[in-house]
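Q: My labmate handed me this sequence with no annotations at all. I'd like to see what the chain might look like in three dimensions before we decide whether it's worth expressing. Could you predict it?
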Amino acid sequence: VLRSTGAWGWYRQQLIKLRVAELSSTEFFVTFDADVILCKPMSGNDLVRGGKALLQKETRSYHPDWWAGSARVLGLPLDPEAEGMSVTPAVLSRSICKRLFTHLKDRFGEDWPTALLRRTSWAWTEYTLYFLIAQHYGMLNSFHFTSVNGIDARRWV
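A: Here is what I predict for the chain of 157 residues:
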């Protein structure tokens, strides 16, 4: 699929990150881009607490085209003023990713990588797709937290 569509490297790496959900034996997995460097030791307990994973929120106004493109791919309404999630590093849920894959297959009648690669002109991203699906199906708060005792979770890690 990747070669036949001529997809950009940017879309390829997004598919690879999402594909981890099909290979992972754990509920949560961490994604990094090549420009991310860990500056201190990190453990699973830093990222997952009480069965929920850290999620860094970010306003959708930073990348409105990504949010609009992902909403179009998913066939969902979009509130551009609502909160979204930031990019890497990110902790993703295998269950949310699998729900995304099912949604794409049901919507387009083809496997999820093909469905996404056929729509690269719509400017989607893996994280905006992930967040919108989690929000649409009411899964976000079941699998993620954003603060610890009222403190922004990114500062806490």
